[in-house]
Amino acid sequence: MADILDNYIILGNRIKNNTYNYETKKPFPNIDYDYGPYNSISDAIKVIGNLKSAGKKVGIIIDGKVTDYWWRTGNEDVPIPYIPDVTAEISDIIYDIQILKDKNEEYDNNFSNIENNITNINNKISTNEQHIENISQTLTNLTNEIKELKTIINNKNEEIERLNDEIIRLDNKINNYHSNNNKSFDVSFDKSFG
User: Fold this and answer.
1) Residues 141/154/192/165 CA torsion (nearest 10 deg)
2) Which neighbouring-strand residues pair with 71?
3) Residue predicted with more confidence, 171 or 6
4) Of 103, 52, 101, nearest to 78 (Cα)?
5) What's the whole-model pTM score?
6) Cα→Cα distances 16→19, 28, 32, 111, 194, Å
7) Could you tell me which residues come within 8 angstroms of residue 157 by beta carbon, excluding any fewer than 6 positions away?
8) Residue 72: which of 82, 62, 64 has the closest Cα?
9) Neighbour order of strands in the sheet with 56-62
10) pLDDT digits 0-9 by tens, 146-182
């Protein structure tokens, strides 16, 4: 059956015309006819021979897994393990680092803004505490003045009460004087003060 399919798709002598291995019932790992996979590096070298070229890859089975080997320049006698170009990965890492730096700078700016806001709030709190202290002192002063005024009012009330008592005493004296002299004239005082 493989022969029939080979007749339908002909890409070239060194390319597998189909990507399925009918003997193992598994797909080939690569459409390059020379890729293999091979059981050893020496098997790969025997098959490749003088066909090695820059970038030519072969698959070598090591511990049951296929590992890519390649001729980097095409001049090596033996293929070396293929290590993918990490330039793109390094570029991605550099890009990620720059994003992190930008984020870090953004966070630093945010933290700086938060610190400034906290300082402003602390200043406002300090100002408000000073205002509260001033108001508290004013209230204390007003309370003391009210106490003094109450004392003055109490003293005035005592003076008024003493004067009222004096008026009553004088009024009684006058009434006694008139009653003793039998004179009838009415002497009354307005006894209401305050």
Assistant:
1) -160
2) 56
3) 171
4) 52
5) 0.35
6) 7, 9, 6, 62, 127
7) 194
8) 82
9) 56-62, 65-71, 80-81
10) 888 888 888 888 888 888 888 888 888 888 887 877 6
